[in-house]
């Protein structure tokens, strides 16, 4: 144990006896495994006579210290970093074993203050892996206006409310394209264009490292020529066209009747 750490611990013991009592408030922080988290001291700037010590666990294992504005690191993992200006502690590439109680002790002009952080590290694979939604394959209605002059059928594979997954299109066993999301995503979509008469086998797959769901493409069901407006542009657009046609017809009849009466 270094001289500075020994001196600091002894000084903290006496400060704890004669100085301020430890606070009971603990700030809870949740973080994903592999991410970084910073435990803030709320200090604007560390003063030269400040003594700052970060410890971990119930045994108060020392992590880092600032003494006379010099940083001393006692962690052998190499993933901890101490901010020189504020004394805040950053844990990089955090792991599940880093979960636990972190305590900050600051001594300034004989006054002692404490902050405690209860850090919980969750494995991303534990979240939303029990259930993965089956991807939905649909006709891309945004391509309707151009599809009439194209020999290709535009499709979308979509999933909602997912995180830490990859969405992919496959042609047989060959990967065509993929997209990934780390944080929670309201909607994740991946486009694909195929020919109307394509006889190949296509599938859309959502997966994470321990689970997957597959939706196979039925080209004959989704991809029709634009002579059939319902299947080409989607039922919603077809209904809108029918309603507009009906309104135009009603307006025409009304105009004729008005002219006859006049």
From TrEMBL:
Annotated protein name in UniProt: CD48 antigen-like
Transmembrane segments: 238-258
Gene this chain is encoded by: LOC109047469
Keyword vocabulary terms for this entry: Membrane, Signal, Transmembrane, Transmembrane helix
Pfam families according to UniProt: V-set
Organism from which the protein derives: Cyprinus carpio
Endpoints of the signal sequence: 1-19
Highest taxon listed in the record's lineage: Eukaryota
Source species taxonomy: Eukaryota, Metazoa, Chordata, Craniata, Vertebrata
Domain Ig-like: 135-220
């Amino acid at each position: 144990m270094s001289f500075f750490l020994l001196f600091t611990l002894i000084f903290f013991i006496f400060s704890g006896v004669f100085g301020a009592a430890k606070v009971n408030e603990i700030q809870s922080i949740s973080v994903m495994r592999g991410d970084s988290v910073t435990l803030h001291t709320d200090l604007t700037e560390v003063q030269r006579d400040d003594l700052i010590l970060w410890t971990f666990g119930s045994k108060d294992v020392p992590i880092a210290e600032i003494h006379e504005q010099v940083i001393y690191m006692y962690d052998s993992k190499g993933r901890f970093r101490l901010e020189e200006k504020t004394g805040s502690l950053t844990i990089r590439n955090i792991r599940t074993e880093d979960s636990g109680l972190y305590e900050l002790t600051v001594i300034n002009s004989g006054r002692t203050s404490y902050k405690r952080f209860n850090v919980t590290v969750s494995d991303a694979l534990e979240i939303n892996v029990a259930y993965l939604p089956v991807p939905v394959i649909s006709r891309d209605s945004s391509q309707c206006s151009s599809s009439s002059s194209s020999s290709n059928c535009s499709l979308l594979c979509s999933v909602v409310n997912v995180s830490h997954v990859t969405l992919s299109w496959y042609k047989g066993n060959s990967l065509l394209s993929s997209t990934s999301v780390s944080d929670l995503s309201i909607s994740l979509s991946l486009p694909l264009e195929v020919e109307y008469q394509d006889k190949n086998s296509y599938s859309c797959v959502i997966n994470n490292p321990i689970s997957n769901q597959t939706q196979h493409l039925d080209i004959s069901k989704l991809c029709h020529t634009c002579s059939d407006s319902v299947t080409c542009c989607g039922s919603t657009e077809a209904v809108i066209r029918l309603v507009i046609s009906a309104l135009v017809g009603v307006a025409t009849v009304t105009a004729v009747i008005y002219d006859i009466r006049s």
